[in-house]
Amino acid sequence: MKVLANDGISKSGILALEKGGFEVITTKVAQEQVANFVNENNVSVVLVRSATKVRKDIIDACPGLKIIGRGGVGMDNIDVDYAKSKGIHVINTPASSSESVAELVFAHLFSGVRFLHDSNRNMPLEGDTNFEGLKKAYANGVELRGKTLGVVGIGRIGQATAKMALGLGMKVIAADMFIPQVDIKVEFFDGQSITTTIVSQSLESLFKEADFITLHVPAQDGYIISEKELAIMKNGVGIVNCARGGVIDEVALVKALDSGKVLFAGLDVFENEPTPEMTILMNHKISLTPHIGAATGEAQDRIGTELASQIISILG
Prior knowledge:
Belongs to the D-isomer specific 2-hydroxyacid dehydrogenase family. Keywords: NAD, Oxidoreductase. InterPro entries: D-iso_2-hydroxyacid_DH_PdxB, D-isomer_2_OHA_DH_cat_dom, D-isomer_DH_NAD-bd, NAD(P)-bd_dom_sf. By secondary structure, the protein is α/β, with parallel strands linked by helices. The chain contains 13 helices and 13 strands. It has a 6-stranded parallel β-sheet, with helices on both faces. Strand 4, helix 4 and strand 5 form a beta-alpha-beta unit. The longest helix is centred in the C-terminal third of the chain and has 19 residues. The N and C termini lie close together (about 10 Å).
């Protein structure tokens, strides 16, 4: 049987699938050609990440399709219910990239509180001529330790982020309408651990209390953070979104950054991917990455092998 990994798959995933008797195709097929390619090559399994969409048109056009797999968590680029109604298995890897995304959240937080994103732009330009000026410009750093991190969505990635925050000595609060409370176990290198319980609270109270806010929610119909929510936040709040584009009103965010209400933002995802707005890209108060939350070697290895084991258990 043939597997089309259209958005790529790790070497370990390929090896696991080949060992299970599958032929893995890693040719990048254009979106509009996916259905033809699947049919012409008798592909049974299509694996995607966030780039390729598997909608009703492809599902209807490919009667031989047995599995659609998403390397990662969110499946908003797949018509999941429709695929299942046609007898197609839909799989994903919700646990594989949690640590990688959580570490990127903290990369943005550290960058924001010490102005690294802006310093790294300006030091090459002015470091030799305006060293003292830049030193003064970036002299008002903030420590994360002792501050309150508000985690919106305390699922797997939210929990991994909470663990890192607790390890830094931060207070963690959470809002999640589906998870009333959760035990967070922080494990150390020597086998010791501590466990603390986080009780979910209202979004409004989280926005009012948090010094920093990180979003870990699926794609939404509307904004979670817009002008109204920004207004009730603390002055000088930091906001990080490594979840999904479209959950923050970017126009309202830029306005809040310009006014000083928001100290900084860290964005890995955007309303208009893959062409984010220039007002976002050029804003010196925003730390930017191009949707790379799960893009570590370790996470991709876990994603590949987990997809392989699920495929083999279903079709093997």
